[in-house]
Each structure stands twice: as structure tokens, then as C-alpha cells.
Specification:
By secondary structure, the protein is of the alpha+beta class. It is about 60% helix and about 10% strand. It has twelve helices and five strands. The protein has a five-stranded mixed β-sheet, covered by helices on one side. Strand 2 and strand 3 form a beta hairpin. Helix 3 packs antiparallel against helix 6, helix 5 runs parallel beside helix 7 and helix 7 packs antiparallel against helix 8.
């Protein structure tokens, strides 16, 4: 029987611990309750006419010792009911038949108690699909034992004994089965709720990780824009100063002053960015808008080689109707385009054009001519500038076009849509509706 049980156990059942302290406690409590009922049954039955047909074993008699021994063996089997539930249910039910044959007490008062406990433990420990044969066999054994006890004790006939046995089998096995199923369903509901909460926590952590990744990408973009613009200008001016320091000291001094201004500017921008990342102090936010692009061009180390063209509407100010995030994207696009032009075509002229005449959009165009010199092998190649411009354009819903021109130069065009204007008020100053 044990070998068949081992072959029939599923993988989760085999992984259970052999015997736990809780299993011993349940078995011991069941044995004590059954023995107490065995001792008290004759006393409780005195004066009850309904028990006159039942012959309870007298204390310390042979039948009493047999019944007590069966109850103790059932308790021992209950210690492995969680590990081998099918075997335990069948063995405990088979043992319950022994006192029913020796002396006809009520099964649910003595041996039937251990059967109830075994059914509950088995249902809680094993999926019900694989437990049905053992439960059916246990019910048949209980019904057979009760039928035997009823036929021996009562002379009314076998039909009544069979009916009483079936009722007893259904009660001893079916009632605890129903209660165990209800308890198991509640346990599974609580387990599902805990799993759902754990899944929600993991989902929240994943969302936090995504948000952190986005913030890191944004910070990397800001650092690239700041460093690429200012440091490329500093590197360019350093090369010019190196050539002019002996031939034209005055212009070399002017270049050094420009390098100092650029260094101060990049330090200020980096300090502002670091301030945004700190929680213990308020950061000073620089206003980087479309209106600040002319100042960006004026502060460029190559300002003498940059032509600025601002085409404005006579009614609205420059950049009117453009959201703050879109204005920042336009500012950074011009900044990155100028940095790329200084890196790849330092001797070419550059044109920055701000066309604000269209009522629906603002067009920013940066065009540089072809370089007269081939870039050296050790010149920085970049790689993130165009990607950053595209990401900013997608973020604000703008159209970005980059590519070479017919003359061999390079052009960056950003078209930023305006926000929807507020609805016009259809009332006159006096509050009357205008027809």
C-alpha cells in the first residue's frame, strides 16, 4: 500500500517535509478527544433510551482495550496524513471498522473522529482531483463498519442497517469534506490576494524603474547638450589661440577671454543641472526659450561666422503660442546644431533662421556650408546629438528633418506646432451675446 502511494504522489506532495510538529499536535489532540469520548460514552449513555440497543465497551474490558488501541493507531497514522493523504484516509477508515465489529459503538464518536480529521487534512494538503478514489473507499469502509455494527446490535434487519451505514458514511466523510473545501477555497482566495498584491508591487517597481530610466536619459541628454555646445567651442578656440599666440597676440588674448566666458557658462549650466537633482536646495531654472536663441547665437564662440535671421509676425511676439517644453526643444536643437557645425565644419558659415510668420507653426532652420578641410581622424565623432534632437522633437510632437544640402553642407529643420488658442468670447463688455 505504501509503495502504491509513493508511486501515486505528485511532485508537490513528494516535496513536503516528512512530519511537522503541527502534524503531531493534530494527531495527539484527536487521540485525546477520541479516548475521552470512549471513557465517557457509557456514562453519557445512561438514561438515554435511544442508546439501549448499543453495547458500549465497559472500561478496562478487552473490547475497551481493543478500541483504545485502534484509536491510538489511528492517531499514529494521522501524523503522516499530510505527507501521504490517500493512504492515511484509507487506513484510518479501515481501522475504524475494527471497533465496529468488536463492539458496536457509534463510529462518529470513536473511530469516526479520526476519519473526519484525516479527510480534512488530506483535502487541505492535496488537490481534490487525485483524492476522490480514496475518499470514496473511505466512505464505503465507514458505511460497512456502521452497517455491521447496526446489524449486530439491532435485529430489525439488514435493510435498516445498510441505510444507517450509508448515512454514517456520508456524514463522516462528506461533512468534513465540505467544510475542508470551504476552508481551502478561502485559503486560496487569500493566497491569490497576496499574489495580486505582490504583482502590483512588482508592477509599481517596474514603473518606477522605467521612470528612473527616462529621467536618466533626460539628464544624459541635458549633459550632452551642455557639454557638446560649450566644450566643443572651447576646444575650437583653443586651437585658434594656439595658432595666434605668436602671430597675433591681441586676438589670442581675446580668444582666451572667450574661452573663460565659455568655461564659466558651462560651469553655471552644470551647477544648475546638479541643483535640479538635489532635494535640499531650490535650483535656479534658466529660461531657455525661442526668444533666448538670439542670445545663444551672440554668445557662440563662432558668432562672427553665424548669420541670424528672425522672421517675425508684426502682431504676436516671437514664439507666441509655443509651449515651454517645445521652446526648450527648439533652443536645444539650435544649440546642438551649432555644436555639430563647429565640430564638423569649423571654417564654414552658418545660418540660423527663425521663421515665426506662420499662424500654425514655428520653423527653426540651421544650415551650415561645406567644410573646406577634411576632418582629422582624432576629431570627435559625437553620436548622440542627432538622437537627442529626434527624441526632443518626438516628445513635443514636432517634425525634425536633418540631412545634407545640395551644396555639400548640412541642414537641421525643426517645425514646432502652436498650441490651440483659447476660444473666443462671444459676449460684449456689457455681458450681452453678440449676434
Amino acid at each position: 500500500m505504501a509503495t502504491a502511494e509513493a508511486r501515486g504522489e505528485t511532485a508537490p506532495t513528494r516535496s513536503r517535509a516528512p512530519i511537522r510538529r503541527r502534524d503531531v499536535i493534530v494527531a495527539g489532540a484527536t487521540a485525546l478527544a477520541a479516548l475521552a469520548l470512549l471513557v465517557a460514552a457509557p456514562t453519557l449513555a445512561e438514561g438515554d433510551p435511544s442508546t439501549d440497543s448499543l453495547a458500549f465497551p465497559q472500561a478496562w474490558s478487552a473490547a475497551w482495550w481493543i478500541t483504545a488501541a485502534v484509536l491510538l493507531v489511528q492517531a499514529v497514522v494521522l501524523t503522516v496524513a499530510r505527507v501521504a493523504p490517500r493512504t492515511a484516509v484509507v487506513v484510518v477508515a479501515a481501522l475504524a471498522v475494527v471497533p465496529a465489529v468488536v463492539v458496536p459503538p457509534s463510529l462518529h464518536g470513536d473511530g469516526g473522529l479520526a476519519v473526519m480529521v484525516a479527510v480534512v487534512v488530506a483535502v487541505l494538503a492535496t488537490p481534490l482531483a487525485g483524492l476522490w478514489p480514496a475518499l470514496a473507499l473511505a466512505a464505503l469502509l465507514v458505511a460497512a463498519g456502521e452497517t455491521t455494527a447496526a446489524v449486530v446490535a439491532d435485529a430489525t434487519g439488514a435493510v435498516g442497517g445498510i441505510g444507517q451505514g450509508l448515512v454514517q458514511g456520508v456524514g463522516v466523510v462528506g461533512l468534513p469534506l465540505l467544510g475542508a473545501l470551504v476552508a481551502k477555497s478561502r485559503i486560496e482566495v487569500r493566497r491569490a490576494q497576496r499574489q495580486e498584491q505582490s504583482a502590483l508591487v512588482r508592477e509599481r517597481d517596474a514603473l518606477v524603474d522605467v521612470a528612473v530610466a527616462r529621467e536618466r536619459a533626460a539628464m544624459a541628454r541635458e549633459l550632452h547638450d551642455i557639454a557638446a555646445h560649450h566644450l566643443s567651442g572651447i576646444a575650437l578656440m583653443a586651437g585658434v589661440v594656439d595658432r595666434q599666440i605668436d602671430t597675433d597676440p591681441e586676438r589670442a588674448h581675446d580668444g582666451v577671454r572667450q574661452m573663460r566666458a565659455q568655461s564659466t557658462s558651462v560651469l553655471d549650466d552644470l551647477r544648475r543641472l546638479v541643483g535640479l537633482l538635489r532635494d535640499d536646495s531650490a535650483a535656479t531654472l534658466a529660461v531657455e526659450t525661442v526668444a533666448a536663441i538670439p542670445d545663444l547665437v551672440a554668445r557662440s564662440p563662432r558668432r562672427a561666422a553665424i548669420d541670424l535671421r528672425v522672421l517675425e509676425d508684426d502682431v504676436r511676439p516671437l514664439g507666441s503660442g509655443i509651449g515651454p517644453l517645445a521652446q526648450l526643444a527648439a533652443y536645444r536643437t539650435v544649440q546642438e546644431a551649432l555644436s555639430n557645425a563647429a565640430m564638423h565644419a569649423p571654417d564654414a558659415r552658418c545660418v540660423v533662421e527663425l521663421d515665426d510668420r506662420d499662424a500654425d507653426r514655428l520653423t527653426v532652420r540651421v544650415t551650415n556650408g561645406p567644410s573646406a578641410h577634411t576632418a582629422s581622424a582624432d576629431a570627435p565623432s559625437g553620436g548622440f546629438g542627432l538622437r537627442g534632437m529626434r527624441e526632443r522633437a518626438e516628445l513635443v510632437g514636432s517634425d525634425l528633418t536633418v540631412g545634407p544640402t545640395e551644396g555639400g553642407g548640412w541642414q537641421v529643420v525643426l517645425m514646432v506646432g502652436r498650441e490651440a488658442p483659447p476660444a473666443a468670447d462671444d459676449t460684449d463688455p456689457g455681458g450681452q451675446v453678440v449676434a
